[in-house]
Amino acid sequence: MGTQDKHAEIAGDRFLEEWSAEELDRYLDCVAASKRRMLQRLGLLSLEDQLVVDAGCGPGTFGTILAETNRVVGVDISRRSVVVANRRARKAGVRFVGLVGDLELLPFGDGTFDICFGGWVLHHFSDVGPVVRELKRVLKPDGVLALVEPNEASIAMRFSRFLEDRLDKVVLAASLDTPSRTVHTPAFYAAVLRQYGFRDVRLSSCYSGEVPLLPRSKKRKLGFWGTSAVRLLLAARHLLFMLSERVLPQPLNGAGLLLTARRDGRCD
Fold first, then answer.
1. CA distances from 71 to 49, 50, 117, 148, 264 (A)
2. What's domain 6-263's architecture?
3. Which residues touch 191 (CB under 8 Å, ≥6 apart)?
4. Is 186 in contact with 146 (CB distance < 8 Å)?
5. DSSP state letter for 261
6. How far apart are CA 226 and CA 162, in angstroms?
7. pTM (predicted TM-score)
């Protein structure tokens, strides 16, 4: 039995159709700097000529950056997202190929990849164990697993969730996410990784600094006052994250939870 609401994931990606190709590219280009900062914190920007799987690649926000110096295979259950990711990779001239697939049953052989990366993925699963097991299976012995997840230990993140739930998912949709999510704490992620045989588990947190944009169709639907209210709330959310980043210790201070771990050296 699957642990992800796959129908919700596929249905949730319809917000991509609310953006014109020009708007979507402008948005993804705008948030690229924040994604790059996260990859830098994870130590992935210094990689060269590694074979990387971008698990849950979405529209390629992380994968196309990694593909500037590596060979990247993206996998996502959303066909719409994969189409966008491949289009953007061709436009950028990078070595990225996106495939439609299920992270609980990856179409790769054992020990295929040097690096397994997942950006904002595991919180879409009620039980992350099957995904972690699959990522370990396709990872080479001593290979690195790197993850970015919502930091549910952050007070600012909890407030953001509160806003999302009361804005009829407007903020969520504007953030290029789907409504299917499960709250997992940093301690939970660390425990699961160790349970499945990963070592050197390291956690940190950060705020990437991005403020979501609204597509024209969403602005038309909300009207002037609705759009203004959402923008005000997004600005308040941004300010809260910025303040928490300065005054709170890790992992309480950042919207993003960063995890790295190394697969054990044994072949299962």
1. 6, 6, 13, 20, 23
2. 3-Layer(aba) Sandwich (3.40)
3. none
4. no
5. E
6. 18
7. 0.85
**3-class SS at 142?**
strand
The 10 Å Cβ neighbour count of residue 223 is: 10
Residue 237 burial (CB count, 10 A): 20
Reported as a pLDDT band with limits 50, 70 and 90, residue 1 is very low
CA 115, CA 27: separation in Å to the nearest integer?
27
Instruction: Spell out the residues 6+ positions from residue 139 whose beta carbon is closer than 8 angstroms to its own.
Output: 111, 112, 113, 115, 116, 145, 263
Each residue of 181-207: pLDDT tens digit?
Answer: 788 999 999 999 999 999 999 999 887
Convert the pLDDT of each residue in 148-163 to its tens digit.
998 888 877 777 777 6
Domain coordinates of the chain in residue numbers?
6-263
> Which residues on neighbouring strands pair with residue 125, listed in sequence order?
4
